[in-house]
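Invent a record, attention on tokens:
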Amino acid sequence: MTDAAVPTPAGGTVTDAEVRAMRRALELAERGPVVGDHARVGAVLLAPDGTVLGEGWHRGAGTPHAEVDAMSRVDPALLRGATAVVTLEPCDHTGRTGPCSVALIGAGVARVVYAVDDPGAVASGGAERLRGAGVEVVSGVLAAEAEAFLERWLLSVRLGRPWVTVKWAASLDGRAAAADGTSKWITGAAARQHVHEQRAAHDAVLVGTGTALADDPGLTARGDAGELLADQPLPVVLGDRAVPADAALRRHPRGLLTIPGHDLHQALRTLREQGVHSVLVEGGPTVASAVIAAGLADELLVYLAPVLLGGPRVALGDIGVGSIRAARPLRVLSTTSLGPDLLVRARPTPPATAGDDGARPDRSRT
């Protein structure tokens, strides 16, 4: 290596060229599909002098992983002695494709630098296999940036449930509907379009049977002109009442998944088993409140319209807060104007514990 060595949090050292390559690998990873049963991964291959040999990224389930994609673009003779810089630990299992660890060893790569360990019980172990074959391995390079980029996927694999975003629209005084129950178009066109974009950015969208029966939603992701977007979420209905045969959900391009009962933890495990890594909860006050009360909300998207409705139709019901001391604290990540409306994006933070100074730690991975 020709440039200066930089220590890593994991105890190894990397060169400036490798750090630059990792930043580039993260940029490449962004080109991969946002939704689907896969991690978005990028890879850069470096010659011993630090020059770039090739680049690659994962284009979705069933396609070559980032390392293999990058190697396919390089003369095999140049791979011997090269360094692979990857945003995620090379996998060590055979699924739709073969193990990247084995491919790297077979190509004669001498060094592998990666950002984050693969938390999967099946796919992990690539670093150990590489070291066992005499490949030099350094981990933890730009780990914080990679963790933030992969946060949804990493959480879903680590916890065995999807990342959960809870969304609701409300008047400025916190009502989800007027006193007579009418609620259509509380927010304007820009806010509604943003919701469609959020649907497209999640693997699934979940409602309860109450919303499915009362509103007959389609839960598709649509563009400004009403056209279906390329990415469609899997529609999920939670509860015991049957969805009518002529319901709009029955015509969804992804089909319909119904999960009986009201066990949220089990429902989320079921979704994870279906390959769902992120879910948008749109299902009205009952489901939204239950998800928050259970501590399962990872992010909140609250669309506020500049109107007052008053009355009993609140956006959230009981979330298990009996006093102000039990209030659930949030960290506001952003506030965005959407036409006349306001979007508040926030995440839960853990409550202060006895004996601390009252400060609430920041759990955000952004």
About this structure: The chain has eleven helices and 15 strands.
